[in-house]
Write a structure and sequence with these properties.
It is built from 4 helices and 2 strands, in the order αβαβαα. With 103 residues, the chain is mainly alpha-helical. The protein starts with 7 loop residues before the first helix and ends with a helix.
Amino acid sequence: MQSEESHIADTLWKAGSRLTNLHMADSNRCALGEGSLDLDTLIMALYLIGYNNDKCFVTPEPLGPGGDPYPAMFGKPRSDVLDRLVETTAKTWNEREQIVRNL
């Protein structure tokens, strides 16, 4: 969506209740918050469309830098690097969500 949509939050708003699984990666495919994705605006849009329910999911996939996810998926990954990416992603998402909810 970052490269094909003019505004991610508007796109989420238009999708509304049809959106059930938002598969995410930051602009550099590293941990959320390490690229240029505007997480705060994205989180706000998800709350506005009622995404915070048990039938909707956000599934980040931080595979590490690079444009092609297949080597990371099918090669021999470094578990320590992937663990850090996942830990940072979860921590960043939780921090940003808490901040957005307290606005």
